[in-house]
Write a structure and sequence with these properties.
- There is one protein chain.
- With 253 residues, this protein is an alpha/beta fold.
- It has a single domain (2-65, 93-152, 187-244), classed as Spore Coat Polysaccharide Biosynthesis Protein SpsA, Chain A (Alpha-Beta Complex).
- 25% of the residues lie in helices and 30% in strands.
- It has seven helices and 15 strands.
- The chain has helices at residues 33-42, 57-65, 67-70, 106-112, 136-146, 205-214, 233-244; strands spanning 2-7, 27-28, 31-32, 48-53, 73-77, 82-86, 94-99, 122-127, 130-132, 150-157, 163-166, 171-174, 182-192, 218-223, 227-229.
- A seven-stranded mixed beta sheet has the order 7-4-1-8-13-10-14, with helices on both faces.
Length: 253
Amino acid sequence: MKVVILAGGKGQRLFPETEDKPKPMVEIGGKPVIWHIMKIYSSFGIRDFIICAGYRSFAIKEYFSDYYLVNADVIIDVKNNKIKTLLPKAEPWRITIVDTGENTDTAERIKMVESFLRGEEIFCLSYGDTLADVNIKEEIEYHRKLGKLVTALVVRHPARYVEWKITREKIEFIKKPSEELGWFCGGFFVVSGKIFNYLKNISNWNEVLFKLNEINQLGAYKHRGFWFSLETLKDKFYLEELWNTGKAPWKLW
């Protein structure tokens, strides 16, 4: 199974952290947020990633192209210009990085990696700035049982996003929710390979979700554990504190 990660955002609210790198490359505990997301999936045996890069895409390419050498012990023979790696610590990942454009919208980015997903019955999709102690295996099983085109992780969170009011019969979107805790889209999705038939003439992924909901093809997997979205420097400091004190709930590995 493959994971598509949306990693093209500028992260303007995280400036100056994002002056020379995209938001998913902002570090938590010395590792980019996107690395933490990939470790979550990897802990469930999913290790084939497609990264939809955009803003400062070279930062993502450089990081992973140097990953093997940077994370290995090495013997450097300066005279003969030879490097021998010892005990490599690189992850068992296959990573496809696609430059989907600096100003491209989310659904358009997904559409641009369609060729890398041919033959996939389902795939996972993640935003590049959210961390959670989500059980990916259970979400996939729930998706298969539900039989809809997209299953979205929904979480409890203060009202700064579009609220999902969920009943047995339907999902209702509340674009201006109350200040009380409600259900919100958590950015971890399981998606049918047939989704590309529904991306025509729609540029934004949220709009795709609204359309799918109208035809009863959107499912909601409720997650009551830890979830957090990196939006500001204050958020970064909070996540750093959790990581550095050994209290990071998303560390499932």
